[in-house]
Design a protein that fits this description.
Chain lengths: 327, 116
């Protein structure tokens, strides 16, 4: 990338950040805003770009290797409630007893339908089919030679309905997701280079589950009580995410459940958000020590509302009538 | 070819947003969100972070019994004004729903209290 392009990119980022000292955007459900989460997916469809998501941790290999992942994900609404996303991850591994290895993981895509949005109850649900495309990544960094399909259900719920005597709990919200990962091949056959013998490795199916627990300072300010806190604080959403997977069939003999817990914070601006979280493995098969993940996330629907940030078909633009509160 | 394709994909980001609009979010209100005011306000004003489409932006005020106590609202620029009748002591809830000039709709509500 040339110096001129880098300057323009820096300028675009500056333009995106500076006017953003006041506003939120993106996944609104009634008065509730669900930020894009770093480890699990949020329950909405949207025009958005996570670019990049960078993580560093010691993985669950034996012996454990230092791993750096740099990921990008682009999501596009086809209609107001249906969207697709495409993502790719570059992995750099540094095992303790071998040279460094780098390469791309398999290409991933998702087809998501947001089928329920209840603003009054701050409740949203969606369903998606995730596809990890086999043979599109580098086997050296662990990309599988088979495709995996993962149907998943997502939900988000804000606590704004709590009684006023519990007003300081109203900014809380949860998101959750449950999916089931099914490899398109039950086993993978490889030739042992030393013996020349073919060996079959089972490809297990997984129950995938995770979620987030978040406290929205923007919600506190705009819907509960304006404590006149510093503006920076009013844009923060402290959050804990968790992501787990459990082998349910075709076990390969390893630890059946792996995953991480990720406490951190997200700062939300007008056109983008920035988040950082710790990566805490739930057991030794999930990793060693504490890692870190950080993400820059762009709201394309707010940055480019009339071009690439709007659905390909249909529009949320009202054409007539007055807004209704439904009561 | 590959460089051109990458630039085409990223050019909207590199060249910057096409407009400076986004979702309109409640920035401040008078009476303040969650506050208690000693004397009843003559109107409730809501300040948003973006300019509003007046035709599609409105707010209303209801008392603790759910009855409307406002006399209508009007939007101008990024501000929404709600005229209210003489408010006796009590708790009131403001519901708002607005459309920013880039067609994004947002909504929300908050309470304030009149009296000590």
């Amino acid at each position: 990338m040339s110096r001129l392009m880098l300057q323009r990119l820096a300028l675009a980022t500056f333009v995106a950040i500076v006017p953003g000292s006041n506003v939120l955007a993106h996944c609104f459900v009634g008065g509730r805003f669900f930020p894009a989460t770093l480890v699990v997916d949020d329950p909405c469809v949207a025009d958005e770009l996570s670019w990049p998501t960078v993580s560093y941790f010691r993985n669950g290999d034996t012996p454990s290797a230092a791993e750096v992942d740099v990921a990008v994900e682009y999501s596009k609404r086809i209609t107001d409630t249906f969207g697709v996303s495409v993502g790719s991850t570059w992995t750099h591994l540094r095992p303790p007893d071998a040279g460094a290895i780098s390469g791309f993981q398999n290409l991933e895509s998702s087809f998501k339908f947001q089928f329920l949005t209840d603003g009054a109850r701050e409740f949203v649900m969606s369903a998606a089919l995730g596809v990890e495309w086999g043979h599109t990544g580098s086997a050296a960094v662990g990309a599988e030679p088979f495709t995996t399909l993962t149907p998943t259900v997502f939900l988000g719920k804000g606590f704004g309905e709590l009684p006023d005597r519990l007003q300081y709990l109203k900014p809380f919200a949860v998101t959750a997701q449950v999916g089931y990962a099914v490899p398109t091949q039950s086993s993978t056959t490889a030739i042992d280079l030393d013996t020349g013998l073919a060996t079959a490795t089972p490809n297990p199916q997984f129950l995938m589950y995770g979620g987030s627990f978040q406290y929205s300072m923007p919600y506190l300010k705009s819907s509960v009580v304006d404590l006149q806190l510093p503006e920076f604080v009013n844009h923060l959403i402290p959050i804990v995410e968790w992501q787990l997977q459990t082998q349910t069939s075709n076990f390969n003999g390893e630890e059946r459940t792996t995953g991480t817990i990720n406490p951190g914070v997200i700062w939300v601006g007008t056109y983008l958000q920035v988040g950082a979280e710790a990566i805490i493995p739930v057991n030794s098969a999930s990793g060693r020590g504490v890692g870190v993940i950080a993400q820059l996330h762009l709201y394309l629907d707010d940055m480019f509302p009339t071009t690439i940030g709007k659905p390909l078909f249909g529009s949320s633009t009202p054409t007539s009538g007055k807004p209704s509160f439904g009561n | 070819m590959r460089t051109t394709a990458i630039f085409a994909l990223l050019s909207p980001l590199i060249l910057g947003p096409t407009s400076a609009y986004a979702h309109a979010y409640l920035d401040s209100a008078n009476p303040r969100v969650g506050s208690t005011v000693a004397s009843p306000p003559g109107q409730v004003t809501l300040h948003f972070t973006q300019k509003l489409e007046p035709k599609f932006s409105k707010a209303e005020v209801r008392n603790a019994a759910g009855a409307r106590v406002d006399a209508g609202s009007s939007a101008s620029g990024s501000m929404l004004r709600v005229s209210v009748k003489a408010l006796p002591a009590g708790t009131y809830r403001v519901h708002w729903r607005v459309l920013s000039v880039d067609t994004h709709t947002t909504e929300g509500s908050f309470s304030f209290r009149v009296g000590r």
